[in-house]
């Protein structure tokens, strides 16, 4: 059985030079340091600290680049490729990217990380000494955590989703706060590894926070008012909807509740942009036409 394992850092020394690089050895096994990995001034007579991985041919190889992410060491890695039949590939600083198997990802592919998302992970090997990325556990994430202060309430935070649950999503913010987004506080379920921005709606005794991805009331009104106004413009300034329209008709047309519709319509009327008449709403400049 091989004593040298992919994903680890070891000390080796030069055994012999070959046209495509150097073979390094621990005295029992040889590992290739490819010529693309050989820096200027390399001295094969000196002991070398190297990281072991599989090259593109699947052979155990060495590099003088020591990545932060390795067996027993965690770090953030960017997702650089998604393969539906395999999983996602992360970049850890090597010439070869590392696979996080689909077996370790959410069951629904739409919740898999996308390119540019980030995962907090380490490395593992299978029985064939093949190297894979391994997602951090809750315990690993908690080691990064910083307790939030009560004055964080209603502030905006950004964070990365690291765990998906039936009830919602766990994130860790840029500051290191552990956060939870209940499914009622979002319009869609974010992906694993996705960066999200929300507002703090609660700070718990343990220093973790509850987060909402929904807009504040005034932000929602602005967005809804813009949607109604754009619809009116698209219809030439007139629409057969007003504050007494049926809730289902409003929901079918504008994808908002009647309460939200009335608040947004009230904003537009207060600003003098629309008026209501005989079950219709009109842009003010179209009201007399």
From TrEMBL:
One of its GO terms (molecular function) is nucleic acid binding. InterPro entries: CvfB_fam (IPR014464), CvfB_S1_2nd (IPR048588), CvfB_S1_3rd (IPR048587), CvfB_S1_st (IPR039566), CvfB_WH (IPR040764), NA-bd_OB-fold (IPR012340), S1_domain (IPR003029), WH-like_DNA-bd_sf (IPR036388). Residues 5-65, 70-136, 152-214 form the S1 motif domain. Belongs to the CvfB family. This is S1 motif domain-containing protein. It comes from Siminovitchia fortis.
């Amino acid at each position: 059985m091989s004593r040298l394992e992919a994903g680890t850092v070891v000390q080796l020394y030069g055994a012999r030079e070959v046209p495509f690089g150097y073979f390094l050895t621990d005295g029992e096994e040889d590992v290739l340091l490819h010529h693309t990995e050989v820096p200027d001034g390399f001295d094969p007579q000196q002991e070398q600290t190297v990281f072991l991985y599989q090259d593109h041919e699947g052979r155990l190889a060495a590099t003088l680049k020591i990545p932060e992410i390795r067996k027993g060491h965690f770090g953030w890695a960017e997702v650089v490729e998604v393969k539906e039949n395999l999983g996602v590939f992360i970049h850890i600083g090597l010439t070869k990217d590392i696979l996080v198997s689909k077996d370790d990802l959410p069951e629904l592919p739409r919740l898999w990380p996308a390119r540019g998302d980030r995962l907090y992970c380490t490395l593992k090997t299978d029985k064939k000494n093949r190297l894979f990325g391994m997602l951090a556990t809750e315990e690993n994430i908690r080691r990064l955590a910083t307790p939030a202060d009560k004055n964080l309430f209603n502030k905006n935070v950004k964070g990365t989703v690291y765990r998906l649950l039936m009830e919602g999503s766990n994130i860790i913010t840029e500051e290191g706060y552990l956060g939870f987004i209940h499914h009622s506080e979002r319009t869609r379920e974010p992906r694993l590894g996705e960066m999200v921005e929300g507002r703090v709606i609660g700070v718990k005794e343990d220093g973790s926070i509850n987060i909402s991805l929904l807009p504040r009331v005034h932000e929602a009104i602005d967005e809804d008012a813009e949607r109604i106004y754009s619809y009116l413009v698209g219809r030439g300034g007139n629409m057969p909807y007003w504050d007494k329209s049926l809730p289902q008709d409003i929901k079918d047309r504008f994808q908002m509740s009647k309460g939200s519709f009335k608040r947004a319509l009230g904003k537009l009327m207060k600003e003098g942009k629309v008026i209501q008449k005989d079950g219709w709403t009109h842009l003010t400049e179209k009201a007399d036409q």
